[in-house]
Amino acid sequence: MKSYDLIVIGSGPAGEKAAVKAAYFGNTVALIEKEQAFGGAGVQTGTLPSKTLKETALYLSGIYQKGVFGIDKDLGRETGIQDFMYRKNIVVNTMDKIIKYNLEKHGVTVFQGTASFIDKNHVKISGETSETIYGKYILIATGSYPYHPKNIPFDNERIHDSDSILNIKKFPKSICVLGAGVIGCEYATIFAAMGIKTYIVNNKDEILTFLDKEISKALVTQMKKRNISILFNNSIVDYHIPDDPDQNLNLTLESGEILQVDSFLFAAGRSGNIKLLQCENAGIKTGDRETIIVNEMFQSNIPNIYAVGDTIGFPALASTSMEQGRIAVTHMFKTADLESLADIFPYGIYTIPEVSLIGLTEEKAKENGIDYNVGYSYYRDISRGMIMGYPDNGFLKLIFESKTKIVIGVHIIGHHATELIHYGMAIIREKHTLSHIIGTVFNYPTLHNLYKYASYDGLGNLAGKKIKKAGEQFIP
How far apart, in Å, are the Cα atoms of 243 and each of 37, 169, 246, 263, 378? Predict the structure, then answer.
C-alpha cells in the first residue's frame, strides 16, 4: 500500500495550495481529484468562469464606452454565444494546465478518481481501477455544489443552476434569476449587459444584505438602469415547462403573478460536496448543508483530518480558501510560517458595476455604538473618472471614528472596485487616519485619489461643512 504524509482530496484553490505547500516543505503528498479537469469550482464552474464572462460582457456590450469617445464600438456582426464563451474557455483550459503543472513541479502524486474513507487514515480511490492509500494526515477540500430544491425541475437546458448556466448553447431571450446573493446578482448583471431582459426574484426587501445599505441601494439603482426588474419579497411557487422549446416558461410567483421567461437560473445556495466521502467511516462530524465542522486550525474532530474551503461553509471565498489550506498545513507539519487567517479581509462582488468592501458597515458601526462619521468621493468628480466617463456614478465611502479619525470601513461601488479595495485593507489593518490618507501621494490621474477626496469630504463633515450627499449629482 502506498503511504503519504498528506492526502489532499480535491484540486480547487484550497486543495492545490495546501498540497503544493506541504510538498514544498519536503512532505510526501498525494492529491485525489474525481474530475478530469483540475481547479474545482474556483476554475471550472465558479470564480474564474463567471468573472471572465463579466469582462466579456463589458467588452462585447461596450457599456462603459458608449458615447465617451464620440463613437460607439461596432463588432461588425451579431455577437453569438461562441463569442461570449470564447475567453472563458481559454481561461479555464489554461488554468487547468497551470494547476497540473504546479502539482507536478512540486512532486505531488496525482490520482484520478473518487475518494472515500475506509477509516481515519485509509482512503479508497475509485476510478478506472480501485486503490487504497494511507495518509498520516488527510485534508478535505472537496468544495461545494449548487443546492437543488426538490420543487425545481432542473433540466440544464432552460432550468439552470450556477454550474450548468456556464454551458448554455444560445443566449436566452429573457431570464429569471432566483436569489439576490453574490452569484445571482453577478449573473443578473452579466446577462443584462448583453441586452437580455433579466428578472431577479428575492424573498427579502433588499439584495446582498451584508453590504452597507447605501451601497446595496446604489447597486439596485444601477441594476434598474440596466433594465433588470427586481421582484422583492417574493418567491416562485410553481414551474411550468412547455413541451415547445419556443414557448416561454411560466413561473408562478408567491404574489400570484405569472412570470414568462425563456430561461431560469437558481442561485440561492450551495452545499458542501462531501456525500461520496463516507465521512462516517472515519467518524468525522458534519454540520448543516453537508459541511464539515472544524476548529480555528481547520482540524475536524478527528485530529489527523482537516477540512478547508467551501466544504466548511462561510466565508467560502477562493481567496480565503487558499489561505485556509496553507494554514492547515502549517499546523499539520509545524512549518511556523502562517498560523491563522487574517481577521480582516476584503469581499469582492463582480457585478456590473463591481462592489467591494472591508471593515464595518455604517449599520454595524451604529449597532456597536461607535461615534463615527463618513466621507464620500465620486468617480465623476476626479480626473481619472472624467477620462473614463464617470462609469455607473461609482463612489467610495469611508467610515471613520469621529474622535480619532481612524478609518474603520471602506466601501466602493464602481469600475475596478475589487482592485481599489486593497489600499483600503492596508488602511484599516494599520489603523490609519484621514490625515494619513491625505498625506499619501498617488499617481495622477488614478482612481486611488478617491481615497484622498473622500478623506477631505470626511473632514468637512466633521467640521459641519457638508460638501456633498450620497447620490448627489455633479456635472463639471
Answer: 34, 18, 9, 14, 50
Q: Where are the domains of the chain?
A: 2-146+271-333, 159-267, 353-462
User: In this structure, what is the dihedral angle of CA atoms 93, 95, 97, 102, given to the nearest 10 degrees?
Assistant: -170
Which CATH number is 353-462's, of 3.40.30.10, 3.55.10.10, 3.40.50.300, 3.30.390.30? 3.30.390.30
- Sign, CA dihedral 382-383-388-390, equals positive
Distance (Å, whole) CA 274 – CA 297: 20
pLDDT tens-digit map of 242-256: 999 899 999 999 999
* Tens-digit pLDDT profile for residues 52-90: 999 999 998 888 877 777 766 665 556 789 999 999 999
Q: Is 80 exposed, middle or buried (0-12, 13-18, 19+ CB in 10 A)?
A: exposed
Identical topology for domains 159-267 and 353-462:
no
Cis (ω within 30 of 0) for the bond into 445? yes
Laid out side by side, the sheet with 228-231 consists of 159-160, 263-266, 174-178, 197-201, 228-231
**What would the grid cell of residue 415 be?**
469600475
Q: Are 268 and 160 in contact (CB under 8 A)?
A: no
**Terminal CA-CA length for the chain:** 73
Taking residues 407-426, what's their average pLDDT?
97
Cα separation, 160 vs 224, in Å, equals 23
Asked if 467 and 455 touch (Cβ cutoff 8 Å), the reply is no
> Rounded CA gap, 16 and 326, in Å?
10
Q: Hey, how many other C-beta atoms are within 10 angstroms of the C-beta on 41? A: 26
Phi-psi region of 336 (alpha: psi -120 to 50; beta: other; left: phi over 0): left
Q: Is 67 exposed, middle or buried (0-12, 13-18, 19+ CB in 10 A)?
A: exposed
* 469 confidence band (pLDDT: 50, 70, 90): low
Residues 18-39 as b/e (b if ≥16 CB within 10 A, e otherwise) read bbbbbbeeebbbbbbbbeebbb
Length of the chain: 476
CA 63 to CA 392: how far, in whole Å? 10
Q: From the centroid of its chain, how far is CA 43?
A: 12
Cell of 87: 475567453
Fold observed for domain 159-267:
FAD/NAD(P)-binding domain (3.50.50)
The architecture in CATH of the region 2-146+271-333 reads 3-Layer(bba) Sandwich (3.50)
